[in-house]
Amino acid sequence: xxxxxxxxxxxxxxxxxxxxxxxxxxxxxxGVVLTVALVVWSGAGDLAALFARLGWGEGIVxxxxxxxxxxxxxxxxxxxxxxxxxxEARPGWARLFWLRYxxxxxxxxxxxxxxxxxxxxxLGLARLGLPAPRAGAGVVIDLTLGLATLVVFALLGxxxxxxxxxxxxxxxxxxxxxxxxxALIAGFIAAQRRGLFAAxxxxxxxxxxxxxxxxxxxxxxxxxxxxDAIYRRRGPVLACAAWRLxxxxxGAFEVWAILWFLGIEVGFAEALILESxxxxxxxxxxxxxxALGVQEGGFTAIALLLSLGPEVGLAVSLFKRARAVAVGLxxxxxxxxxxxxxxxxxx
Length: 347
Known about the structure:
Blueprint: H1 8-42, H2 44-52, H3 56-82, H4 93-109, H5 116-127, H6 132-165, H7 168-193, H8 196-204, H9 208-216, H10 220-232, H11 234-261, H12 268-284, H13 294-305, H14 310-346
């Protein structure tokens, strides 16, 4: 049987998909090169000596503690996300926690830009019976509020860093940069209220990922309407923002725990500076899978600012990577097994 000829739209879609995959591969390669360069520049021997302070037993204990702290952060974020869903339609907290963890694992470990996990959790909510537009809108707003509260968290870190750096110029420059980022987030929120996805629908439709996203959320117009409806419910929106800010603040405890196990005695303020500015830099590298290299470079630079040594910042970042693999890889394997069973049941 002759194969049907591809039309121009099919050809363009395949070309755009190939370009996207090539871009992701090149970004990932760039991240690997940057990470290796940072290890060499900071001193591979110094980095190895820092990790050598941990024996196997203490290293496992440290990893378990850090995993526990990070899991608590994921639970806090899941609670915030759940507040955007009406109580009568909200899935159980355990399921929201699971989807939040799967989302993080996808964004961190799979070769996708750092928004692939948002597609997964929107799809997961829709499969649990939540109307698709509501599921997609909740994910979009939760992601937006996460970035907005990250700005607040970063401002706190910048203020603390400025007092330690001892320069008003540092605070001024960092404040201007953060203000610009905050303005972009505010503009993004305003655009959402005015039908952002309907305006973007044509452009999204040219890409396979965009087509899948719009299919999952029930179309651009329905998504925009649901986003506007959620923003009108200010109580849940403010509650979600508050929980997300708590999650960011709790992240400083993870950094403090890592430093403590590595034998680096610092106060909570230093840990908060590392985490807040490290996260703002990491999120700026969203186009690189897992922010590989960007995260490492950010923590290294901030450690230098705090006079901790570049190997300390790099060690914190790599310990976070170890935690991500230790807990994220099993989660992805279980998720894939569940997806396989679901597909098998449908066939």
